Amino acid sequence: MADLVKRIFLDPSRCIGCRSCVAACRECDTHKGESMIYIDYIERHNTVASSPTLCMHCEQPLAPCAQVCPAQAILVSPDGVVQSADETRCIYCENCGYACPFGVPKFNIAGHYMQKCNLCYDRTSQGRGPMCATVCPTQAIFYGTYEEWLRAGRAQQGAKPVNTFVFGEQRVRTRNYVVMRQQDEELDLMALIEEANLGWRANLPAATANAHTDTWTNAETAGIPQREVPAQPWTPRQPAPAPEPAHASASRSEPALISRSEPTPINQGGGKPGPYPVTN
Predict the structure, then answer these.
(1) Does residue 263 form part of some domain?
(2) Is the residue at 135 inside a domain?
(3) Among 43-57, 65-79, 97-111, 217-231, which is the least confidently predicted range?
(4) pTM (2 d.p.)
(5) Can you list the alpha helix ranges (DSSP code H) found in 125-273?
(6) Is 10 exposed, middle or buried (0-12, 13-18, 19+ CB in 10 A)?
(7) Which residues face 113 on adjacent strands?
(8) Under a CB-based contact definition with an 8 Å cutoff, are residues 67 and 96 in contact?
(9) Alpha carbon distance 28, 122 (integer Å)
(10) Which terminus of the chain, N or C, has fewer Cβ atoms within 10 Å?
């Protein structure tokens, strides 16, 4: 059965780092001049390779960013597009930034709300392509169905789209794809890290940060006395009454005698009379 859902196919091998997608993303009406796409430069000192990064719109598990939002500010449309946070509901807790495996959410400091790629929903919901895909000169960001991707000749030379990513023990399946090799069934990020560490960094000397440190010893073994904790530290304690001043007790035992004279107006020369002072 043909897949009629239009998706984004990211091909890092076609990216030339021109940042046209970044400039076009700012023109999206829902982004308010902010770009929601990133261009990553991989080992800039060794290669000119670059790769675009945008929201992958996770399907399984469904939108981890939306699941951890306590204010339900991130909604998922019926067609599986994870929307940007509703700025009227976002409480700026940044939970979505910690939950996103791709590090996509971007936080607006001035407005105190989260922004992310929403697949240019104002355009894609009307059958038009997202801004980034329409301006990419090398079609490193391709928007369409899988059949359209094949008809465009993108499957030549052993290319294969992958939408399963492995982060340690967590497996994530996304709406968007990354173009890999024909033999790749998934993209294991931790395996790539281990492979990179066993490559050109294998001949580096061992780290010496812990060479001259003492091992951790708990307080009981070291003989450090422990403070006694109240049986119920959560019980509110009643403060001790404050000492009563001496003059206050004397005033209650001997009441003061106050004599008042007849009040006389201050302004005797005519005009509006002034206040009446009280003399003791």
Answers:
(1) no
(2) yes
(3) 217-231
(4) 0.65
(5) 131-135, 146-151, 189-197, 219-222, 246-253
(6) buried
(7) 108
(8) no
(9) 9
(10) N
Any domain includes 202: no
In the chain, how many domains are there? 1
pLDDT in tens, 217-246: 666 677 766 555 445 444 444 555 667 776
Hey, what are 216's tokens? 């951790």
Print the domain residue range for 119: 7-197
For residue 233, whether the previous peptide bond is cis, meaning omega lies within 30 degrees of 0, is: no
Tokens at residue 229, please? 């904790």
Q: How far is CA 250 from the centre of its chain?
A: 65
Residue 256 token pair: 């003061």
Q: What is the mean pLDDT of the chain?
A: 78
Tokens of 196: 């990179």
pLDDT tens track for 61-70: 888 999 899 9
- Whether 127 is in a domain gets the answer yes
Closest C-alpha to 167, from 185, 194, 191: 191
